[in-house]
């Protein structure tokens, strides 16, 4: 099991498609999803995140009924939010 490490100098980025998907998050969840994304800069592997098998460096974090899909670089110096998905079976294009 991987341990959680705090990274205060982690670069946080978001793809344009993830940014657009945030517009689909309902008002009741948008604050929690936004806060979860920002908190990934401090703790890129929180206890409730899951590594995606066969997708090196990719994780998802469930928040309410939404899933934050992100990639953590091998050097643990950058994190890119790839998508904000409305369910676990959502296909990423």
What does this structure look like?
The chain is an alpha+beta fold. It has a single domain, classed as 2-Layer Sandwich (YaeB-like fold). 22% of the residues lie in helices and 29% in strands. It has helices at residues 16-22, 27-39, and strands spanning 11-14, 50-51, 58-63, 66-72, 78-85. Strands 1-5-4-3-2 form a five-stranded mixed sheet. The radius of gyration is 12 Å and the shape is globular. Mean pLDDT is 87; it is low at 1-7.
CATH-scheme architecture: 2-Layer Sandwich
Order of helices and strands: EHHEEEE
Order the strands across the largest sheet as they lie in space: 1-5-4-3-2
The number of helical elements comes to: 2
- The whole-angstrom Rg is 12 Å
Name the poorly predicted regions: 1-7
Number of domains: 1
Mean pLDDT: 87
The fraction of residues assigned to DSSP E strands is 25-35%
Counting helices, strands and paired strands, the structural category is alpha+beta
Number of strands: 5
Keyphrases for this structure?
YaeB-like fold; 93 residues; five-stranded mixed beta sheet; alpha+beta; single chain; globular
């Amino acid at each position: 099991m991987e341990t959680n490490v705090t990274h205060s100098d982690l670069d946080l980025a978001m793809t344009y498609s993830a940014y657009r998907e945030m517009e689909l998050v309902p008002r009741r969840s948008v604050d929690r999803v936004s806060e979860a994304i920002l908190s990934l800069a401090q703790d890129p592997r929180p206890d409730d995140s899951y590594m995606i098998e066969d997708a090196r460096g990719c994780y998802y974090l469930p928040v309410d009924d939404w899933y934050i899909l992100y990639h953590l670089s091998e050097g643990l110096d950058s994190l890119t939010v790839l998508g904000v998905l409305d369910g676990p079976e959502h296909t990423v294009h």
